[in-house]
Amino acid sequence: MDIFIVWLLISFAGIKPFFANAAGSTVGILFVFFTSLYKIFENNGKLIVVKLAVYIVYSIFLILIISFLVQYLSDNAVFNNISKYFIAWLMQVHVALVAKIVLTPLSLILNFFVVKNIIEKIKF
To answer: CA 92 → CA 20, 83, 86, distances in Å?
Structure first.
């Protein structure tokens, strides 16, 4: 969902990679939080608003960092040339989408551990 939104915004709306990633990631993290709340982790049923607030603060920082990195890699000449020749050329996608795909595993791993700790450990 996240990568699809980024692709749409970059390819069809002409939005810069930083902002496209911020929008796609925001939709993605909210979906992950609410799905994880009941389906993946043990939730004690309390303080959902507090947990969501903590997750939003964390997510803002993560989205800003990943969005900056997507923009940086998209503008980086070396990454740009490597991805154009090896990936973007084959699939005809924007270099920013390649950067997003490269950075997504890091974001997913961080999200898993942070959401797990927020949902299972916050009990006040």
So the answer is: 18, 11, 11
What is the DSSP-derived secondary structure letter of residue 40?
T
Q: What's the pLDDT tens digit per position in 93-108?
A: 677 888 888 888 988 8
**CB count in 10 Å sphere of residue 94:** 18
Is this structure's pTM higher than 0.85?
Answer: no
